Amino acid sequence: MEPLTVPGTLDSLKAIAEYVMAAAMVAGLNKKTSYRLRLAVDEIATNIINYGYKEANREGILILKADLDDRSLTIAIKDTGVPFNPTQKLTPDDLNKSLQERQIGGLGVYLALNSVDRFIYKQDGNQNCNILIVNRDDGLGTS
Question: Which of 4, 5, 65, 70 has fewest C-beta within 10 Å?
């Protein structure tokens, strides 16, 4: 699929969701897997927009790229917002703490990362790259 480039604003979330669902359809993913992937991408994109751009008084874009192979669908999200590695925000031990002991935030990211089969974060120069991968299991999207 062709990449999608959108402004780093909340108004872009609809186009992002449509792109992810179109990629899921091309991949033949079932409804549950498609929905979980869309929610995961939405959570990551929302955090990039809110924290990487808006709260940092920055403007920028998000570039989404869907790649499909026989085994998986990969959605990569690139941005130039404030660097943030979502895998370091919340640990499983944090979930066992009481609400009073727990840090504010991070639960949405934790749920997003656990909604996909694999998540990778890396920095590439001045870009953040969040990579979300869902397995197609038998290659027919019946995961």
Answer: 70
Q: What is the pTM of this model?
A: 0.85
Residue 139 pLDDT greater than 70, yes or no: no
Q: What is the pLDDT of residue 21?
A: 98
In the sheet that 72-79 helps form, which strands lie side by side, from edge to edge? 4-7, 61-68, 72-79, 127-135, 118-124
- 121 has which bridge partners? 130
| Per-residue pLDDT tens over the stretch 85-123 | 887 755 556 545 554 554 545 567 878 888 999 999 999
Contact residues for 58 (Cβ-Cβ < 8 A; gap 6+):
8, 52, 80, 81, 82
Contact in structure between 101 and 121 (CB atoms under 8 Å):
no
**Residue written as token pair 């991949």:** 27
Contact assessment for residue 34 and residue 78, using Cβ atoms and an 8 Å cutoff: no
Rg (CA), the chain: 15
